[in-house]
Amino acid sequence: AQSVTQLGSHVSVSEGALVLLRCNYSSSVPPYLFWYVQYPNQGLQLLLKYTTGATLVKGINGFEAEFKKSETSFHLTKPSAHMSDAAEYFCAVSELGDYKLSFGAGTTVTVRA
Amino acid sequence: EPEVTQTPSHQVTQMGQEVILRCVPISNHLYFYWYRQILGQKVEFLVSFYNNEISEKSEIFDDQFSVERPDGSNFTLKIRSTKLEDSAMYFCASSPGQGRNQPQHFGDGTRLSIL
Asked: B58: Cβ–Cβ under 8 A, 6 or more apart, which residues?
């Protein structure tokens, strides 16, 4: 069974600073990996996904993530934080033969002016 | 951009009552899902639905729960005899196809409060 671990339930960054959100997964085969963002009082919006091919994937709003099989990681980054990036971010996986998403616990990002 | 819509946004129900949460998936999508998020916990998969039948369900989705697509547009989650621990945010999602690379599009959720 797959599981997803997000290190750090809360990350605080200064505006303009690097945003780094960590996600590790456990799976017997490389899963498909996703990052979702949830703004206050809204649903989950897909930021980016990794399925096959290039291990560095770019998403919306300047975010990108890199799949590292050797480290079973899929960390999310953004070079320069903006106030509008304040939200909760969820890493999720979908394993071979399975279509449901398994989510991490989420990381809340706050951005300081 | 088309979106998944859920109603109501907040539902307050007495313990033991039945509740129906409603979702309108994106119109050309074929796969439908319900997830829930208890306050402070992970988003958890409940059930997936395709071709008018359940394709997968979690251990959470017991006989208390049921899903239905009563017409061509709505997708509902019914919870019978609600319990305090059913209080959560319930998310509906839909995807265009079955492949794992088909992204699931989520609604804004229904916050269910059981008193």
From this structure: A100, B44, B45, B46, B47
